[in-house]
Specification:
By secondary structure, the chain is α+β, with helices and mostly antiparallel strands. The protein is built from ten helices and seven strands. It has two domains: 160 residues, no CATH class; 171 residues, Heat Shock Protein 90, CATH 3.30.565. The protein is 65% helix and 10% strand.
Length: 361
C-alpha cells in the first residue's frame, strides 16, 4: 500500500505541470490555506485539542494535495491550449471561472470528507459554507496569478538569455564578415586574377571588377541586417562564384538551380559566403579533378553540395569557426538546425529557409 502511494506521488510529480514552481508554491501555501480553511469550517473548536488539530490538518493536507493536483492538471490543459504570452488575459479569463466552479466541488467534497471520517468531536459548520467557498475562490485567484507570474518570469528570463546569446552570435558574425571583407588571401587572388585579365581580356576584366564591387558592396550593406531574401543572397553568390570561376577556370564546376517561387524566403546574410569560402579553402581545385559545386533547393530548403578534395590548411580553425557561428545563429533565430551530411567523396549542407520574421535584438 505504501509502495503504491509512493509510486502514485512520483507519477504525479512527473506529469507536466502548470509552471516549474507549482509544487513549490503548493508547499508554501498548503499549511496556511489548510489552517484558515479548517478555521472557517470548524471555527475555534478544532483547535481545542492538539490531537484534533494535528489529525484534521494532516487529513486536510492529503485531501487538498489531491484537489491541487486536479487544479494543476486543469491549468496545464488550458495553458497548452493558449500558450502564447498574448493569450495571458484570455487564459486567466478561462481559468478563473473554471477554478471557481471546481472550488464549489472542492468545498462540498471537503464537508463530505469530514463527515464521512467521523474522526472529529467538532462537527463541520455548514452555515459557514459560503465563507469557505469565498476563501477557496480567493485562494485560487491568488495562486493562479502567482503561477502565471512564475510562468511569465521564466519565459522572460529565457527570452533575455536567448537575446543575449543572439547578440553575441551576431557580433561574432559581424566580426567574421569583416574578416571576409578584408581577407588578404581573397583580395590578393582577386587582384591577381584582375591583373591577368587586364592584359589578356579587357572586356572580361571590366565585368570582373564590377562583380568584385558587387561582392564587397553586399558585404558592407548587409552587415547589420538580421535576415535577407534568398534572391539577394543568390545574387551575391553568383558574383562571388564568378570571381572564383575566373580564377580557377576549368578546375571548378558550378551549377545553381533554385526554384524562383522560393526567392522571397529568407536566411541570415552572408550565409553562402561562409559556406562557399569554407568549400573553396578546404578543397583542392585542379583541372584533372575539378571541384564540383551544386546549389539547389528542395521545397523550403537550400542545399549546397560539393565534392570533397581535402587539402591541408593553416587557417582551418577560422573557417570552421565561421560555419559553427552560422549553425549557432540558425538555432537562435528559430530553433532551426543546419543539416551537414558528409561521405568520403561529398558534403551536403542543408539550410532551412525562413518566412518573413523579425528577430528583436
Amino acid at each position: 500500500m505504501k509502495a503504491a502511494l509512493i509510486l502514485l506521488i512520483f507519477r504525479i510529480m512527473a506529469l507536466k505541470r502548470y509552471s516549474d514552481r507549482e509544487l513549490r508554491l503548493f508547499l508554501w501555501v498548503v499549511l496556511p490555506y489548510t489552517i484558515l480553511m479548517n478555521l472557517i469550517v470548524f471555527k475555534n473548536c478544532m483547535y481545542a485539542s492538539l490531537h484534533n488539530m494535528l489529525l484534521c490538518t494532516g487529513l486536510s493536507v492529503v485531501y487538498l494535495f489531491i484537489a491541487y493536483f486536479l487544479f494543476g492538471l486543469t491549468g496545464s490543459f488550458i495553458q497548452r491550449k493558449f500558450p502564447s504570452n498574448q493569450d495571458l488575459f484570455k487564459r486567466i479569463g478561462i481559468m478563473l471561472p473554471v477554478f471557481y466552479g471546481m472550488n464549489v466541488l472542492l468545498v462540498v467534497g471537503l464537508y463530505f470528507y469530514y463527515d464521512m471520517l467521523h474522526l472529529f468531536k467538532c462537527p463541520a459548520q455548514t452555515d459557514n459554507f459560503w465563507w469557505a467557498l469565498a476563501f477557496g475562490c480567493f485562494a485560487s485567484t491568488v495562486i493562479t496569478f502567482l503561477n502565471e507570474a512564475a510562468v511569465n518570469w521564466s519565459k522572460w528570463k529565457e527570452a533575455v538569455t536567448e537575446t543575449e546569446q543572439l547578440k553575441t552570435v551576431y557580433q561574432k558574425s559581424k566580426l567574421y564578415g569583416l574578416k571576409g571583407q578584408i581577407n588578404p588571401h581573397f583580395l590578393f587572388n582577386c587582384f591577381n586574377s584582375l591583373s591577368s585579365l587586364i592584359q589578356d581580356d579587357e572586356q572580361n576584366a571590366e565585368r570582373f571588377l564590377a562583380e568584385m564591387a558587387k561582392v564587397h558592396r553586399y558585404m558592407l550593406r548587409t552587415d547589420d541586417e538580421q535576415l535577407v531574401s534568398l534572391e539577394q543572397e543568390l545574387k551575391f553568390a553568383r558574383s562571388y562564384l564568378f570571381l572564383l570561376k575566373v580564377r580557377f577556370a576549368q578546375a571548378i564546376s558550378i551549377s545553381i538551380k533554385v526554384d524562383p517561387a522560393i526567392l522571397e524566403k529568407q536566411l541570415p546574410p552572408l550565409s553562402l559566403q561562409v559556406i562557399l569560402e569554407n568549400i573553396i579553402y578546404t578543397n583542392a581545385a585542379i583541372k584533372s579533378s575539378p571541384l564540383s559545386l551544386f546549389i539547389y533547393n528542395e521545397k523550403n530548403k537550400l542545399i549546397i553540395q560539393n565534392s570533397l578534395q581535402n587539402k591541408i590548411l593553416s587557417n582551418e580553425a577560422y573557417l570552421e569557426e565561421g560555419l559553427d557561428n552560422l549553425i549557432a545563429k540558425y538555432r537562435l533565430l528559430g530553433g532551426m538546425e543546419i543539416n551537414v551530411q558528409e561521405s568520403a567523396f561529398e558534403r551536403t549542407i542543408i539550410l532551412p529557409l525562413f518566412d518573413n520574421i523579425e528577430v528583436a535584438l
